[in-house]
Amino acid sequence: MNITVPPKPQKSGFKTFRNIGIGIVMLVIYIWAFATIEIPWGRIFSERTIANFDRVIPKLFSPDFTFASRVFEYMMETLFIAFTGSFMAAILAVPFGFFAASNINRNPFLNTLGKWILNADRTFPEILLALIFVVAIGPGAFAGVLAIAIHSVGMLGKLYSEVVESIDMNVVEAMEANGANKIQIFFYGIMPQVIPEFLSYAIYRFEIDVRASTVLGIIGAGGIGTLLVISSRNRNWDEVGMILLVIIIFVSIIDYISTYIRKRIV
Questions:
Q1: Whole-prediction pTM
Q2: I need a surface site. Which of 63, 64, 146, 170 has the fewest CB within 10 A?
Q3: Which superfamily is assigned to 63-265 in CATH?
Q4: What confidence category does residue 3 fall into, taking pLDDT thresholds of 50, 70 and 90?
């Protein structure tokens, strides 16, 4: 039996020249960047720095397990902050998602306005929003919840709008042709198509918000970040090691559960 082997693709001289040119440009950028940055190598490898590493690193890898109950309490507060903020965002992002979807909102001005609102909301990182709310309403978990919720609305609203824009409009047109009203089209023609992906994105956003919530406590927005700041300022590096260990364990578990649930939904 004769087996026909496809011909080897011919190498393009232009592509080779282009790749070499890109490599040279990237190399020049890296050289220029490191040459213009004044890195204090003497300070980095000084005896004091090495002594600090010898004092801090061993304690980080020797966590204080007697501190675990308090760390667990603050970690649960972090999870509650992330869950509440994500839950609020998952609901509030739905109308924004439909408002920014071009196949649902046919008005070019309103559709562009919806996209701008979501873009503006995503511009502000969680830590900046948390700082604003800490100043406005005082330190605590509520400031962290608001920061997580508002930032997540922008992210989920953008994802939701893309999901809505990808639905099968033939279903909607068929229902319209059969005399269905807008409410019936929404609940029986649109929502069944988007709910699985909406839930998947909401769960994935919760996973991201858990990581973000661990940092917000540094500026007084509640959660385990507050405990991390206190322990680091007091030079209790064994407590810091315990905090980091708990964060790694919880984030890993949530990541695994989130991935499993999203695979089952979609």
A1: 0.77
A2: 170
A3: MetI-like (1.10.3720.10)
A4: low
